[in-house]
């Protein structure tokens, strides 16, 4: 069973310390006047792409975004993406892992969850300048590496994510009046699904992990995105299947086994029911 290709923070840019890995680079220095084209892969770190001037295409978990000016993308570890950037794009590319930045304060942690639940945000030029100022501060601190620079970087990351959350509404969220508790539990569920989908497929087990009843959890997901927990579980299974179908050469049976299906015929029927394609046809049509 081959794994999806995983990119790591380049050794020339990572912090060699027990404080985690971090990198920030100006896009002009990454591109060096050439177009960037990446194949489907995933990261073991958080990936932040902020484009002051942008053109190209960014596909994240099989959702395609046309890149333009004043756009921000945030990817969580494990998400798959492929990226095409025009040679003249400007902005910043920032990468870091959980060890470097993982807010402990409950308010900051919840804001961080909100930020990382939004893969894409586009803002007005005046508001983008505010986001850009925080990234410029981070880049300056990272380059100079003066006393306390790591703390300064983290402080600016806090400010960056505050502004990012202000600027971006969750496009999947159907209710603008969803209360904070409901939103937090919904985001907690999404993270549990990402971590456990190959092992846990029962809605009541996710409710138990969140110390909620099945009724409470279904009420939360319906208020958040208009779906039941079971529907979200199915969505996550299909997403994981698509990731392996398009990013690896694994046989269908191997992918079914990875997802916890001993009966390959059942897995094929399940996949076709939710996508309209058999796994093999999906691979041929979209790879």
TrEMBL record:
<keyword id="KW-0238">DNA-binding</keyword>
<dbReference type="InterPro" id="IPR009057">
    <property type="entry name" value="Homeodomain-like_sf"/>
</dbReference>
<dbReference type="Pfam" id="PF02311">
    <property type="entry name" value="AraC_binding"/>
</dbReference>
<feature type="domain" description="HTH araC/xylS-type">
    <location>
        <begin position="187"/>
        <end position="285"/>
    </location>
</feature>
<dbReference type="InterPro" id="IPR020449">
    <property type="entry name" value="Tscrpt_reg_AraC-type_HTH"/>
</dbReference>
<dbReference type="GO" id="GO:0003700">
    <property type="term" value="F:DNA-binding transcription factor activity"/>
</dbReference>
<dbReference type="InterPro" id="IPR018060">
    <property type="entry name" value="HTH_AraC"/>
</dbReference>
<protein>
    <submittedName>
        <fullName>AraC family transcriptional regulator</fullName>
    </submittedName>
</protein>
<dbReference type="Pfam" id="PF12833">
    <property type="entry name" value="HTH_18"/>
</dbReference>
<keyword id="KW-0805">Transcription regulation</keyword>
<dbReference type="InterPro" id="IPR037923">
    <property type="entry name" value="HTH-like"/>
</dbReference>
<keyword id="KW-0804">Transcription</keyword>
<dbReference type="GO" id="GO:0043565">
    <property type="term" value="F:sequence-specific DNA binding"/>
</dbReference>
<dbReference type="InterPro" id="IPR003313">
    <property type="entry name" value="AraC-bd"/>
</dbReference>
């Amino acid at each position: 069973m081959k794994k999806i290709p995983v990119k790591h923070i380049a050794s020339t840019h990572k912090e060699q310390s027990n404080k985690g890995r971090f990198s920030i680079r100006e896009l002009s220095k990454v591109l060096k006047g050439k177009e960037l084209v990446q194949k489907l892969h995933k990261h073991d770190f958080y990936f932040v792409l902020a484009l002051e001037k942008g053109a190209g295409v960014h596909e994240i978990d099989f959702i395609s975004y046309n890149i333009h000016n004043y756009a921000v993308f945030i990817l969580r570890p494990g998400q798959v993406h492929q990226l095409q950037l025009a040679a003249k794009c400007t902005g910043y590319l920032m990468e870091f892992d959980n060890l470097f930045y993982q807010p402990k304060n409950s308010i900051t942690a919840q804001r961080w969850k909100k930020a990382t639940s939004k893969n894409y945000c586009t803002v007005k030029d005046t508001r983008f300048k505010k986001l850009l100022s925080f990234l410029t501060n981070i880049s300056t601190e990272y380059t100079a590496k003066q006393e306390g620079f790591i703390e300064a970087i983290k402080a600016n990351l806090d400010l960056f994510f505050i502004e990012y959350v202000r600027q971006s509404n969750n496009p999947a969220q159907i209710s603008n009046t969803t209360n904070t508790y409901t939103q937090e539990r919904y985001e907690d569920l999404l993270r549990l699904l990402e971590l456990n989908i190959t092992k846990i497929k029962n809605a009541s087990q996710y409710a138990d992990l969140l110390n909620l009843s099945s009724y409470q959890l279904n009420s939360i997901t319906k208020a958040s995105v208009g779906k039941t927990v079971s529907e979200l579980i199915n969505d996550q299974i299909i997403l994981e299947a698509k990731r392996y179908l398009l990013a690896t050469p694994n046989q269908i049976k191997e992918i079914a086994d990875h997802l916890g299906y001993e009966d390959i015929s059942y897995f094929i029927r399940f996949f076709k029911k939710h996508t309209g394609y058999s796994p093999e046809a999906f691979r041929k049509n979209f790879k």
